[in-house]
Amino acid sequence: MSPARGLHGRLMDIGPLRRHSLIAFFSSIGVTIIGFFATIYIAHNAGPTALGGFFLLLAYVGIFGLFTDGGFSGAALQRISEGGSQNEYFSAHAAVRVILLAATLTVLIAVRPFFVDLNESGLFLWLLVALVVSTGAGIISTGVYGSGKVGILQIADLANNIIRVIVQIIAVFLGYSAGGLAAGFIAGIIAGLLINMHVFSMKIVRFGRHHLDRLLTFSGWAFITGLTGALMGYADTILVGYFLSNSEVGMYRTSFQLATIALFVMSALRTALYPKIASWMKEGETGSIENALARAITYSLALAIPAACGAWVIGSSLLYYLYGASFVAAGPALSLLFMVEIVTVFLSLETMCMGALDMPKSVFLVTAIGAASTIFIDILLIPIFGITGAALALLIGTTIFAIASHLVITKRIRVRIEKKPVLSIIISSFVMATCVSAYQYFIPGTNVFLIAGAVFAGMLIYSILLMRLDMGIRNEVRDMVTGIGLPWPGWL
Fold it and tell me: I need a surface site. Which of 41, 94, 318, 366 has the fewest CB within 10 A?
């Protein structure tokens, strides 16, 4: 038996939820590592101004992409996951999305003169191309995700990121700046689309009015929820660009991207859990939902908390040696953004549950509260404190959003915090931060290798201490590692 086939067999022996979580976890690690090194190269060779222009493009794609979606992807995913008339729901959603894409492109072309920043940087046409390609990819991925092929979707996402990075690095090397970054972004989407097409099993069939009606009952709330969510996610970028400069947008979003390292465990679990929770809801298995949510929170915090502690200790040094001296000014913002990610763990997992439990009105309400709070505070703080003000506004707005979400979801299910494991995570994180601070005191980080040593030492101390403090976490991690045929250190 070949090693690859043996590994595949061992993966298939693991339960589907754990298998999908593992695939998502390692895919997230791969994406993070690839994006990490690519951003270092691009920051040093293209600079913060080119990155700022590209991040503004992504913000516009994120917002206007919602108008090409209209909430129908989320509605189709919900109906397809419930089973029954899957091809009909998929076909109805695809037809509507094509119509919405045509309408959105028409409006954007008509109002092109208002996009001064995109026109000046030559990125407006890239915006149109990106919307077309991402709509096609979104239609196919909805069918793949709704069919339960989560692992393939995650592999496609990994390929998307790999191809994007390769094309962007080549483009920057050849002298293309923001336009080259945009080209890589589109190339990555196409790569992911091609992979999803290989396992795509949905068929375009005739659908009836009642299929559209059932999608519309969900899509309206999904759209306005998505719109408020996009405003929550991108308003700070656009407002930084409005009040400040593209260079500061680049510094802010580069720091934000670095902070998302803290979320790849949560992202993996969120992707794997949504279809299962929707299924459990239909079967009335509330206990399974509550147990899965509690465990997901614990494992997500196992990365988010130590990452935030580490950022407070060596955040500015990381920015200097990774991206260059021009990014050091974002050090205080980076520390705040890592704190945002801790709050985001609760926020994202609870809103995911609300969506899977078919609570679109509630999701919209709490998202609107979070978006309005963040935008209002952004307008107050960015002109005074710059990108640090943007990060602080995001932290306050996200906290308000999370509190509102928690108050709503607890009316439907019980949200448990596993006290002993979470306490072990907090203790291990603070011990790790203290040790790294001592390391920095006795061995100042005067070069990238010493900073890397501090990071590695912190990871090692945290991992060993956590495994010693909490046997439950240790045993689950050990079972997953040995379950796919990897060795487990006897001393742990």
Answer: 41
- Identify residue 432 by its one-letter amino acid code: M
Give the C-alpha distances (Å, rounded to integers) separating 184 from 54, 109, 307: 11, 23, 29
Q: Tokens 């959603």 sit at which residue?
A: 93
The token duo for 189 is 């989407």
Is there a contact between 201 and 75 (Cβ–Cβ < 8 Å)? no
Q: Is the pLDDT of residue 287 over 90?
A: no
HSE at residue 367, side-chain half, CA atoms within 13 A, is 25
Maximum alpha-carbon separation in the chain: 71
Task: Give the model's pLDDT for residue 148.
Answer: 67
Q: Which two tokens stand for residue 190?
A: 């196409």
> How do residues 431-457 score in pLDDT, each as one tens digit?
999 999 998 888 877 777 888 888 888
Distance of alpha carbon 68 from alpha carbon 222, whole angstroms: 13
What does the alpha-carbon distance between residue 240 and residue 346 come to, in Å, rounded to a whole number?
26
369: nearest Cα among 406, 411, 408, 400 = 400
Degrees (nearest 5) of the Cα angle 152, 202, 4?
Answer: 25
Contacts of 463 (CB under 8 A, 6+ apart): none
Give the pLDDT score at 5.
Answer: 46
Structure tokens at 241: 């660009």
pLDDT digits (tens, 9 = 90+) for 108-122: 999 998 887 788 778
SS3 string, the chain, reads: CCHHHHHHHHHHHCCHHHHHHHHHHHHHHHHHHHHHHHHHHHHHHCHHHHHHHHHHHHHHHHHHHHHHHCCHHHHHHHHHHHCCCHHHHHHHHHHHHHHHHHHHHHHHHHCHHHCHHHHHCCCHHHHHHHHHHHHHHHHHHHHHHHCCCHHHHHHHHHHHHHHHHHHHHHHHHCCCCHHHHHHHHHHHHHHHHHHHHHHCCCCCCCCCHHHHHHHHHHHHHHHHHHHHHHHHHHHHHHHHHHHCCHHHHHHHHHHHHHHHHHHHHHHHHHHHHHHHHHHHHHHCCHHHHHHHHHHHHHHHHHHHHHHHHHHHHHHHHHHHHHHCHHHHHHHHHHHHHHHHHHHHHHHHHHHHHHHHCCCHHHHHHHHHHHHHHHHHHHHHHHHHHHHHHHHHHHHHHHHHHHHHHHHHHCCCCCCCCCHHHHHHHHHHHHHHHHHHHHHHHHCCCCCHHHHHHHHHHHHHHHHHHHHHHCHHHHHHHHHHHHHCCCCCCCCC
Q: CA–CA separation, 461 vs 316, rounded Å?
A: 21
C-alpha neighbours within 13 Å on the C-beta side of residue 438:
9
Q: Mean pLDDT, to the nearest integer, of 50-64?
A: 91
The letter for the amino acid at 262 is A
Distances (CA, A) of 129 to 105, 160, 170, 190: 10, 16, 20, 11
Gap between the terminal Cα atoms of the chain: 30
